[in-house]
Amino acid sequence: MSEADAFIEGMNQGFAQIFMYGDPTLAPAVFRGLSPRLNGVSTGNTAFAANVLLGTQVASTNTSIWLICWGPNSVFGIFPKGSQAGLQHRDLGLQVVENVAGIGGARMMAYREHWQWKCGLAVADWRYIVRIQVGTTIASGTIASDLINLMSRAIDRLPSLTAGRCAFYMNRTIFSILKIQALAKSNQALSVEEGLTQIEYKFLGIPLRKVDQILNTEASLT
Question: Which one, 16, 25, 153, 181, has least CB within 10 Å?
Fold first, then answer.
């Protein structure tokens, strides 16, 4: 299991990358992620422009904060009919394999496993996704964009907060800057709840999730 942990983490990171940036027009094997859907205000897919908020952008060193309300009538995950949801694992046991790193044509005994994840994303109502893009240039310990202001505005873009389970998604850079900005303003919008096994941060009652696959090198949306 300790050897399998690395594969599980790799699959999780791969899923997160596709979930954020997957574009089947560039890689047919992936599902369409969030970024190709909400990718502009006056250019790109302008049908969703009302739910794209722009902070202070900096050339190609931007990142995005996502607000998603998960629910059966808003945004939800899917998988092929007749298959199983989630990460699937098969232990194939000890097999004879080609020892490609050794002597040509040599064989060896090795334990083999098979990992598979059939997944997709369904957006039943695009109004329940909001994208905020901000520059990531840090000066004097913070960035130019007012994250508290932008995230408050994002919440008001949602038609309802009771349509499902809402959460903000951001990378570690923005997660850290948000806490710094809230402390500097003695702002009560950011709260901390301590559970039995973890500490959970919330913004105006909405959970914050860290996603390492959200880039700091996004091109500026227009």
Answer: 25
